[in-house]
Amino acid sequence: MSDLAAYLGAAILVAWAASMSVLERHGARRPIRRAGLVFALCEGCSLALLAPRTVSALTDAGLPGPAVVAAGDAVRALAISFLMMLACALNPRGCGRRPGCQLAMAVLVQAAMLALFVIARPRLDAEGELMADPPGRWPLALRVAVFAGYAIWALTELFLALLPQARLAGTRALRWGVRLFLVAIVFGMLWSLWSYDDILDVLRHGELNGSEDVLSNVLGAVCASLVVTGALLGRSGATLSATARWLRLYRCYRLLGPLWTALRAAMPYIAFPQASRPRMAGRLRLEFALYRRVIEIHDGRLVLRPYHHPAVASWVAAASDSGPSDALVEAATIAAALENMRRQRRFTDSSEAPAGDPGLVLTDLDSEVLWLSRVAWAFSRSPVIPAVLERLRAEEG
């Protein structure tokens, strides 16, 4: 389980970093993107290097076990350093230090971890545990504390730098991507805090899990998954927005179908000539068809104005359990007007300002689409429409 989680997290991070490097090799790489990709690559390599099976295989190949663990920790500390660089690039004043100072801090942390490891002189037992004699327990515990403190500091700075972007990002997909990054940072903090349990083990028993334990590798895999998912979501925001818009337009197109069909059946002359349809594909073709329906419905509504019955609004109010919406009143007005047109009944006194017709004054085309979608839904599905038509026919009788 520990090996599986470690290798899974490593594969996700390394594959994502490699793919992003290939896709953007011809473009300008900003420091933010560069720091993020190097962090992902280093963290993925450290997860794979510190996996129990990797440590065992390298030890069997003749490499000193403590050296393998020290190398894995050095790569992970390097990843944390690039994480701090990323936080400074996102919010230069948040860290309180310039990039040069952060570089010096990264070198100091690496040197301190190496010196404490040499002073502790641990050995690796058959189960992959680092063992330290009583004189080396304090240096080894201090080494763990230095790395955990540095990691928590970097994660805190990155969290504070990203937090405003969760509300200010330009698109919904980008905002959700930032939120996933924030969740990943929280898991990263838990991962780092779990290291303090190792400090107690070192001080009490002189034992330190040289290769990561199950919980640490699971937390690492979760962090990797959240980071890559957030990055992909942020990058694909435009694609997701376009897809969501296409689905919304298609839903409106389907909703307008019954109303559009009824109006064209009663007034075939409102239809555009087929020869005027341009050759388009994909979303543009759907938008053209949808807006064409909107215009034809709009023309049909204008033709029906002399046939509007002045009492429709009151009939709808009487037939509705709650207060009728403007869309329902408009749908009932159109349905009654179509019936009056079939019977050649005009109401010229209502042609100037028909009741329940706010859609005629909308100037934004998308707003018109949404308004007519609500009208079309009520026209085809509301039980009030048959009640209004039944009352209209009863009035004639």
From TrEMBL:
Know the name of this protein?
A: DUF6545 domain-containing protein
Q: Which InterPro entries match?
A: DUF6545 (IPR046675), MAB_1171c-like (IPR050039)
Q: Which Pfam families match?
A: DUF6545
Tell me the superkingdom of the source: Bacteria
TM segment ranges: 6-23, 35-55, 67-90, 102-120, 140-164, 176-194, 214-234, 255-272
Alphabetic keyword roster: Membrane, Transmembrane, Transmembrane helix
Q: NCBIfam families, from UniProt? A: MAB_1171c_fam
Q: Which residues form the DUF6545 domain?
A: 245-381
